[in-house]
Amino acid sequence: MKKLYWLLFLALLPALAGPALAQKKLKVVTTLPDLKSITEFVGGDRVEVFSIAAGYQNPHFVDPKPSYILKLSRADMYVTVGLDLAIGWEPPLLNSARNDKILKGAPGYVDASVNVPLLQVPTSVSREQGDIHIYGNPHYWLDPDNGKIIAQNIFDGLVRLQPESRAYFEENLRRFNERIDAKIAEWEARMRPYRGTKIIAYHNQWPYFARRFGLEIVDFLEPKPGIPPTPSQLAKVIRIMQTQGIKVIIISPYYKPDAAELVTRKVGGEVVTLASSVGAFKEVKDYFDLFDYNVDRLVEAFRSTAP
Ligand SMILES: [Zn+2]
Questions:
Q1: pLDDT in tens, 60-101
Q2: How far apart are the CA of 133 and the centre of ligand 1, in A?
Q3: What is the pLDDT of residue 18?
Q4: Rounded to the nearest whole angstrom, what is the distance from the C-alpha of residue 67 to the centroid of ligand 1?
Q5: Shared-domain flag, residues 54 and 155
Q6: How far, in Å, from the CA of 22 to the mean position of ligand 1?
Q7: What is the pTM for the complete model shown?
Q8: Ligand 1 center from residue 23 Cα (angstroms)
Q9: What spacing in Å lies between the alpha carbon of 212 and ligand 1's midpoint?
Q10: What distance in angstroms lies between residue 225's CA and the mean position of ligand 1's atoms?
Q11: How close is the Cα of 233 to the center of ligand 1, in Å?
Q12: Centre of ligand 1 from the C-alpha of residue 220, in Å
């Protein structure tokens, strides 16, 4: 008799576990690894995510490869930073992939910037003098609080494509938001002693990060976003750092440190290479690591350069 129950149980098992096990994994392609990481937190084991750009690459300039087109042609969902961040490489890849399911307006298209309060939105759209941030600053994922808005946009997309998994995605989203809130409190506490610290950045990609943690970015090594440092710009930055006692220049791993090092040698400061995306360094494995890493590096730098 016991054996019969056991057999019955085994026979029923697939039906009991059915809805979860039988769920087809949604194939998601993201432009950036930060969006990949957040999609994995919300989508859990019901998504398979590929990021086109790697975290150590400049997200404005990615070489389109045939393998990306293949991934896009097979994707159920596409998550993009939006604005003009990937204007140089996103449209050609999407055109070549010919996948109607992930084009703008389709259920599988997710613009992660929806509802993000943008900074530095210009009053007129112009690429004058090579500016590559014409719709407002596109580096919004660098404020962890915006991570929750991104997660909501991704959640909405996942539910559109797989409504039967809503409760599962909802629980993942709730857990992600809870963890972000707890970590923000921790990161803010660690950065609190340095509120108001003035710094210089290579590229204008940290306004969201700086606002969150109370840093003041006074100038950039690039004279315009996307235009490499010029001797006259570097001379101007040296003057500013000397007169205002600024000691720290933040750069990203894909910029050559030469110009920043030249400047800090003159003023006795420090170049700090931050992670501008998940995967920038091997220890930056997910969206939480990104801020752990950057807060660690900055706290170290502010301590070592304190007067
Ligand atoms: Zn940029």
A1: 999 989 999 999 999 999 999 999 899 999 999 999 999 999
A2: 6
A3: 47
A4: 25
A5: yes
A6: 42
A7: 0.91
A8: 38
A9: 18
A10: 6
A11: 18
A12: 12
Q: 146 alpha carbon to ligand 1 midpoint, in Å?
A: 17
- Asked whether the predicted pLDDT for residue 190 surpasses 70, the reply is yes
Which of 185, 202, 227 is at the close of a domain?
185
Q: How far is the CA of 134 from the centre of ligand 1 (A)?
A: 10
Tell me, yes or no, whether 155 and 179 share the same domain. yes
Distance 139 CA to ligand 1 centre (A): 6
In this structure, the answer to whether residues 104 and 155 fall within a common structural domain is yes
Higher local confidence (pLDDT), 37 or 306: 37
CA of 160 to the centre of ligand 1 (A): 31
Residue 83 belongs to domain with CATH number: 3.40.50.1980
Q: pLDDT tens digits, residue range 129-168?
A: 556 788 899 999 999 999 999 999 999 999 999 999 999 9
For residue 205, the CA-to-ligand 1 centroid distance in Å is 5
Give the distance (Å) from ligand 1 centre to CA of residue 106.
Answer: 27
Q: Within a 10 A sphere around the Cβ of 21, how many other Cβ atoms? A: 9
Count of domains observed in the chain: 2
Last residue of a domain, one of 185, 212, 239: 185
